[in-house]
Design a protein that fits this description.
Layout: H1 2-6, H2 9-16, H3 18-49, H4 76-99, E1 110-114, H5 123-133, E2 139-146, H6 149-170, E3 178-179, E4 189-190, H7 191-214, E5 217-225, H8 228-237, E6 247-250, H9 266-286, H10 291-303, H11 314-343, H12 348-372, H13 378-386, H14 400-423, H15 425-436, H16 444-450, H17 457-473, H18 481-502, H19 516-524, H20 526-543, H21 549-568, H22 581-584, H23 599-602
Antiparallel strand pairs: 1-5, 1-6, 2-5, 3-4
Helix pairs in contact: 2-3, 3-4, 3-17, 3-18, 4-20, 4-21, 6-7, 6-16, 9-11, 11-12, 11-14, 11-17, 12-17, 12-19, 14-18, 17-18, 17-20, 20-21
Length: 633
């Protein structure tokens, strides 16, 4: 841990990329906000709550909550003013986090063109058309995108065989390595001969698929011009015509693009989007909170006759909901992440942004909103809304036991959740499965490199902001939640700092919209103060059975805060700085998928292997598949 904390920002930036630096900066500012709120909760709010006599004795948990005070107690005004003061506190501190340099440079010299018709999918047509519309623009390079979905899969198999063959070649003097060609068979053959044969077969298959891909250009092109001003002028002044309905935008960086997903059409993507989100909504609608299962246990106990009636154990009724809540909160982001991966986003930044927003929305309902209302699922909320005959017992919401429920959740997330994140069970399970399915030990080195993935910023942003929101929302009603929330954010910061540097690969979502995930994470912190004012206003109105002065002040403060957030944007977005003129002359990246390069160029990160790529190397650049579809490398 000491080594992790001693890491400098420059070291993290060089090793893990700019996204890691901005993510850790976000957590540092959250720690500052939570430290101030924790101090206020323990020093100011907790002693005031102890002044009441409504909930138990001094040893009971309810004695520390706002429910311990009389509804007409003047001490409740302190809670009102503290909650209102938290609004500028969160805004001013998080504004600093979002206003800092994101260490990103937008690829402003390259334009991404989409919706190109099949007749115009060649470089000469695109160049002539752009030069005709903008004769003063100097076009430096044009690259087309190709359908490489099959090629990408086959190329991965080819690399696996090449590295396994090299491993066998380097270890032939020790002992013979055997390989099991078929997983359900016990027959083994010589590994070197097997991988050498497979390499030759796959090399020919890769060459064939590459030639086929180069003859199948997509309706996407990347145009690199000389300066930022030229690129911006082309994008602003280009108007789609009746014949060429092209769409122009600044291009993401090549490393941010999922090249194999560019072949997914917009219509097909939206069909998949509707199907995925419909399934996720059904899960949210029918089984949102763990209280649903606990209620089933209670129902079973009440439905038995006198001879068979049993009582649910306190361990089940108290600890199980909290543990299940944390388990579902950890499982939901995984489900969302895998579903979004199936959606085939074009860029990593867009995929992370989608995972973050959807995960936070589901967690907000599953962990905070519905349990606070005493509902088991969104289905129960809809049934209560439609069935007006049933009178809802508003006085039963926001009780001390609900506060204990959320305190238990934050404790579980702080001590169990962060520890499991350090172990990284999902990656461990995938690694074990890949080892079990490996045909020989010669493939282990390739497996170790293939599991080096990027840090899932979308999931971790959603988790962090969710615990922060839960802690802040109940910081006034239940001040004991804040120390554990502070413990969580500190543990989370150390664990993420370690994982970013030692466990995950570098991340550089440097597209023009790549910083959107960071700015949106800052924006999501505003939900904490909005929900805090909403809950306090509801509690004031319910406990006094009407709108008194405190409820009116809180409602007015809520309206002013929403207006401020919606129209005045007090929290600046983490938009990336536009490159200065000096950056215009920097070499523009080449917009060609790695699988279209020759092997010695596409896999420079594996140069540590002796003799890598020296045998049976396929020069994929030698086959261009035509004049207009060739790749200039």
């Amino acid at each position: 841990m000491w080594v992790t904390l001693k890491l400098k920002k420059e070291e993290i930036l060089a090793h893990s990329g700019p996204d890691a630096v901005h993510y850790l900066s976000f957590q540092q500012h959250l720690m500052l906000v939570m430290a101030i709120i924790t101090l206020v909760s323990i020093v100011v709010i907790l002693p005031i709550n102890f002044q009441g006599t409504l909930s138990g004795d001094v040893n009971s948990f309810g004695h520390t909550t706002i429910s311990n005070l009389e509804p007409q107690s003047p001490w409740l005004w302190v809670h009102v003013f503290v909650a209102i003061a938290y609004v500028p506190l969160v805004v001013l501190i998080m504004r600093r986090a979002s206003g800092r340099n994101a260490f990103k440079k937008a690829p402003c010299r390259t334009i991404m063109v989409t919706h190109i018709s099949s007749n115009d999918r060649n470089k000469s047509e695109i160049r002539n058309y752009i030069q005709q519309l903008f004769p003063d623009v100097n076009i430096e390079d044009i690259q087309l995108a190709f359908n490489i979905k099959k090629l990408t899969k086959k190329y991965a198999e080819y690399e696996r065989c090449v590295e396994a063959r090299i491993y066998c070649d380097n270890n032939r003097d020790r002992r013979s390595i055997r390989v099991t060609p078929v997983w359900y068979s016990c027959n083994t053959v010589d590994a070197f001969e097997y991988y050498q044969k497979e390499e030759r077969n796959l090399a020919g298959e890769v060459a064939r698929l590459r030639a086929s891909a180069l003859n199948e250009p997509l309706g996407i092109a990347f145009i690199t011009v000389s300066t930022v001003e030229e690129a911006q002028s082309v994008i602003q002044h280009f108007r789609p015509g009746t014949y060429r309905d092209w769409q122009l935008a600044f291009a993401p960086q090549p490393l941010d693009i999922f090249w194999e997903n560019l072949s997914v059409s917009t219509r097909r993507w939206y069909v998949k989007w509707i199907a995925v989100n419909l399934c996720l909504f059904i899960v949210l609608f029918f089984l949102t909170t763990p209280a649903y299962i606990v209620n089933l246990l209670d129902f079973l106990s009440l439905s038995q006759d006198d001879q068979q009636k049993y009582k649910v154990s306190p361990v089940v009724s108290e600890f199980l909901p909290t543990l299940m809540l944390w388990t579902l909160s950890a499982l939901m982001p995984v489900i969302v992440a895998y579903s979004d991966k199936w959606l085939s986003h074009w860029t990593r930044s867009r995929q992370n942004y989608s995972v973050m927003t959807k995960t936070f929305g589901y967690l907000l309902f599953m962990i905070l909103i519905l349990p606070s209302l005493g509902l088991t699922s969104a289905q129960a909320l809809l049934e209560w809304t439609v069935q007006g005959k049933d009178q809802y017992r508003w006085e039963c919401i926001f009780l001390p036991d609900k506060g204990a429920f959320f305190v238990n959740y934050v404790i579980t997330a702080a001590f169990i959740g962060t520890a499991l994140e350090l172990i990284r069970f999902p990656e461990l399970i995938v690694y074990v499965w890949m080892l079990c399915t490996a045909r020989s030990r010669a493939e282990i080195q390739y497996i170790r490199k293939s599991i080096l993935i990027e840090f899932p910023f979308g999931i971790h942003y959603a988790w962090t902001v969710m615990v922060f929101t839960t802690s802040v929302v109940y910081s006034v009603a239940c001040p004991l939640i804040m120390p554990f929330g502070m413990v969580y954010i500190c543990f989370k910061y150390v664990v993420d700092r370690h994982n970013l540097f030692f466990a995950y690969g570098p991340s550089n979502m440097v597209s023009r919209n790549g910083g959107k995930i960071h700015s949106t994470a800052v924006t999501m912190t505003k939900f904490s103060v909005v929900l805090l004012l909403t809950i306090l206003a509801a509690m004031a109105a319910i406990r006094r059975q009407g709108f008194d002065a405190r409820a009116i002040v809180l409602i007015l403060s809520l309206c002013m805060s929403l207006t401020l957030f919606a129209f005045m944007s007090p929290i600046k977005r983490c938009t990336m700085r536009r490159p200065s003129i000096s950056n215009d002359r920097a070499p523009a990246p080449l917009y060609v998928a790695d699988v279209l390069f020759a092997r010695q160029t596409a896999t420079t990160d594996h140069a540590t292997y002796s003799g890598y790529g020296s045998d049976t190397r396929i020069e994929l650049n030698s086959e261009n598949g035509g004049d207009n579809s060739s790749v200039d490398i």
